[in-house]
What does this fold into?
Amino acid sequence: MAREMKGQAGLRRVPPTDGAADNAIELADVRHYFGDLLVLDGIDLSIPARSRVSFVGPSGCGKSTLLLMIAGLLKQQGGTITVGQAAEQSGRLRQCALMPQQDLLLPWRTALDNACLALENRGVSRSAARRQAQPLFEHFGLASFEQSYPSQLSGGMRQRVGFLRTLMADKAVFLLDEPFGALDAISRAAMQEWLLSAMSDVPKTIVLVTHDVEEALLLSGTLVVFSSRPARIVDVIDVKLPARENRLEAVSDPEFVALKHRALGAIR
It folds into this structure.
């Protein structure tokens, strides 16, 4: 059954993944303001390598802000954030790949060339990048769409290209910020099943920001539950659920429902 993980002095620890010895992300007394408005209030969290963690909480509580700080795209105004051995923004940026809610595909580039962007940014030639990315298109359900432009792809397919682009960055930490937030309910459910399968082949630390508790339970091994603003961690839930063949079976499981109620209760 799920359990709350608390260390000394309020430090929250995500349960380690089997075989993970080191922590990928350490947050210590992280605070942040927008003007005079306190957004994050003393966030303490330890995330082991190769964990799959979801940040859940009310809209506007600061989850995405915290993700940007972990990625090194925004500097915290108090406390420390360490990714691997890197505590400075530039070092964290080198460790993390961020997939935002909007796919941000370049409309003038094909799906294949959009997926290659991360490699090209590292100095790989476009032809060499294409050779590396091409074999992955079939694995990610994009076979025969390599030469399609973003305007020719469905929302779900665009998100798959965005995830593939993130994967090609080959960073130790993947940060996913509401990746399916712009999709309709049916497409979102299908993409959740797809991402769950895709992540099984990705031995990375994955942090997902979502306000959808069901999505968090489906896609991660641990839920970190935040309060309303100013955000504080109010619960850390270890998700150990039996494997199910499809999403409908999973969300109907009594233990799944109990964990959902626990998370929603903590948020309220």
Q: What stands out?
A: Residues 1-9 have pLDDT under 50 and may be disordered.
